[in-house]
């Protein structure tokens, strides 16, 4: 967020000007003088930030649920980037207090202490993860060792409803999820196996090939070989998108009933 004597600009991490997308957030930052504030726009859904909900709001051009968590102050009538992180944050907190900044902008509070315990609690709460920062570090635009992103992952078993062949095994698995009487499509997974495991998966799925999809609502996948949903893929994933599909999924194992293949 670039504030310059009443003029406001909002830039993405890659430098795109998204001021028009975030007019409500920019409008809440009624701060005189000059300031550059770093932060992240999120949507809070069921008590936690939700990336797929954010995608949906941005795609629809809505702003009512968007919240800007401000976590750093890079410029305040002068360059602050060489100051320690903890000092920049204190100045940011003071700046918000002096100017009565309110929603949809929030100061991002931090915790000082045992990072491992914080991470364990984040996992239990199904948060996406935590970010650990050096309190004495200056600001750096590029990635470095002064801050580390630690992501939690969700893990679940999904019935395999189809696959894409490659010369010696599988290139991808199509996954479903049983919800009542419906078998719903959940997306695909295409990473997490070696060439040997890929070949083993193919041998197992070749035994249950079906002429048609067993999904309640068939989807068009020209490269798919459909199978009876008797095998289950153990999959790690970060989240579920607004379309109900797995995001950033990775294969961990294949099961039939309760037994691992």
How far is it from the N-terminal to the C-terminal residue, by CA? Answer: 52 Å
Instruction: Indicate the CATH architecture of the largest domain.
Output: 2-Layer Sandwich
CATH topology descriptor of the largest domain: D-amino Acid Aminotransferase, Chain A, domain 1
Count of individual beta strands: 17
Largest β sheet strand count, sense and barrel closure: 7 strands, antiparallel
Instruction: Please indicate the count of domains.
Output: 2
Order of H and E elements: EEHEEHEHEHEEEEEHEEEEEE
**Which percent band covers the strand fraction?**
35-45%
Helix content: 10-25%
Q: What is the CATH superfamily label of the largest domain?
A: DNA ligase/mRNA capping enzyme
Structural class: alpha+beta
Task: Give the overall shape, derived from the CA principal axes.
Answer: elongated
Any idea of the CATH class of the largest domain?
Answer: Alpha Beta
């Amino acid at each position: 967020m670039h504030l310059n004597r009443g003029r406001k600009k909002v830039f993405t991490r890659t430098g795109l000007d998204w001021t028009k997308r975030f007019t409500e957030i920019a409008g809440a930052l009624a701060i005189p003088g000059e300031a550059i504030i770093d932060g992240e726009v999120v949507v809070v859904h069921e008590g936690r930030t939700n990336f797929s909900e954010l995608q949906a709001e941005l795609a629809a051009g809505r702003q009512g649920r968007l919240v800007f968590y401000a976590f750093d102050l890079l410029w305040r009538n002068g360059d602050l980037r060489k100051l320690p992180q903890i000092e920049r944050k204190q100045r940011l907190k003071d700046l918000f207090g002096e100017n009565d900044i309110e929603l949809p902008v929030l100061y991002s509070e931090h915790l000082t202490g045992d990072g491992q315990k914080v991470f364990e609690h984040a996992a239990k709460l199904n948060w996406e993860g935590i970010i650990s920062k050096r309190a004495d570090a200056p600001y750096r635009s590029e990635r470095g060792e002064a801050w580390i992103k630690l992501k939690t992952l969700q893990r679940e078993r999904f019935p395999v409803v189809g696959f894409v062949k490659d010369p010696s095994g599988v290139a991808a698995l199509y996954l479903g999820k049983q919800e009542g009487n419906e078998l719903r499509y959940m997306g695909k997974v295409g990473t997490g196996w070696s060439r040997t495991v890929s070949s083993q998966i193919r041998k197992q799925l070749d035994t249950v090939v079906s002429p048609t999809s067993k999904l309640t609502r068939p989807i068009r996948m020209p490269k798919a070989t459909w199978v009876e949903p008797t095998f289950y893929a153990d999959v790690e994933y970060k989240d579920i998108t607004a379309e109900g599909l797995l995001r950033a999924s990775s294969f961990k194992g294949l099961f039939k009933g309760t037994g691992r293949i």
